[in-house]
Design a protein that fits this description.
Elements: H1 7-39, H2 44-72, H3 77-97, H4 103-110, H5 113-124, H6 131-148, H7 160-179, H8 185-201, H9 204-207, H10 213-239, H11 242-245, H12 251-264, H13 270-295
Helix pairs in contact: 1-10, 1-12, 2-3, 2-8, 2-10, 3-7, 3-8, 4-7, 4-12, 4-13, 5-6, 5-7, 6-13
């Protein structure tokens, strides 16, 4: 029997959870920044393959030959296939967008995923969707329209790629929520890594370019950083309440802007900043409503 944490221990666990979430977000945006540089020199499928192949190797090494086969076994193999396909789609769409738009813009557009998850949970998981949550969804979409500004002469089709990433990420999150209570995180990590490696590996014979010696380390680092970031986020949610740590994911906008400015001299324009603020405000509003609903003993929510 697990004893409940004392107040001091619970506060310490929450602090560690928040720090792990911040570290995970920092690592994810750092991975994206490295990927942006590599995609300027190599085909995107090759970079995406490196990200998942690196994760596959690292997870297998961490689990060891005895635990890896056990982690691969699942009672829901087809759900893992669909979930892994969604994760591969999210990574691929985001990496593809980096060849055309800035890190801050791409990150802002993908940050509509929290409100899309709320909408998807209502449609596919039967969770209630009240008028306030609908308002949050519409506000986030309005923020995305401010960023991409269709009809204003600055819109490019590449701006749709981060939105496609957000949709795929939403599918991944909903399926993870659906099977997450039944199986451990290592199973999801390993399935996603192997699926992504095999799927992108099919394209390698057609797009492969020899890797410069100076870039070999960068390809390896992308896989390691992506795996470490996922582990940090998983560990964060296991140490602290999701409602406490989830809002810190929006710090990724700050990190992405920092990497974009310092590495690529990409400064987001005024309307990108405004749109990003609208998206973050909508996400925080939905999170606030979710927190109230979770703490309210009444069945009404939204």
């Amino acid at each position: 029997m697990t004893l409940p944490l004392t107040a001091d221990a619970a506060q310490a666990a929450t602090r560690k959870g928040i720090l792990l979430m911040l570290l995970g977000v920092l690592l994810f945006t750092g991975m994206d920044a490295l990927a942006k540089g590599l995609i300027q020199r190599y085909p995107a499928p090759q970079v995406v393959w490196a990200r998942f192949a690196g994760q596959a190797v690292l997870v297998i090494l961490l689990l060891g030959p005895a635990r890896a086969p056990a982690a691969l076994r699942s009672a829901h193999p087809w759900l893992h296939v669909v979930r892994s396909a969604c994760q591969l789609g999210a990574t691929s769409f985001f990496f593809l967008s980096l060849a055309h738009i800035g890190l801050a813009e791409a990150t802002a557009l993908t940050d509509i995923n929290p409100v899309l998850i709320t909408l998807g949970a209502a449609v596919f998981l039967g969770e209630r969707l009240g008028p306030r949550r609908i308002f949050g969804v519409l506000a986030a979409m309005a923020g995305a329209m401010i960023v991409i500004r269709p009809g204003a002469g600055v819109f490019t089709p590449a701006a749709l790629l981060p939105l496609a990433c957000a949709v795929c990420y939403t599918g991944n999150a909903l399926l993870t929520r659906h099977i997450g209570t039944r199986e451990g995180p290592w199973t999801s990590l390993l399935h996603a890594a192997l699926f992504g490696t095999l799927a992108t590996g099919l394209f390698l014979p057609f797009v492969w370019q020899p890797i410069a010696t100076a870039d070999i380390a960068l390809f390896c680092i992308i896989g390691c950083i992506g795996t470490a970031a996922q582990l940090c986020v998983i560990r964060s949610f296991s140490m602290a309440e999701a409602s406490v740590v989830a809002p810190f994911g929006y710090v990724g906008l700050i990190f992405a802007t920092f990497w974009g400015v310092t590495i690529y001299d990409e400064w987001p324009d005024f309307w990108t900043v405004i749109g990003a603020l609208v998206i973050v405000a909508a996400g925080l509003y939905v999170w606030h409503r979710e927190t109230i609903a979770a703490r309210n003993t009444s069945p009404k929510a939204g």
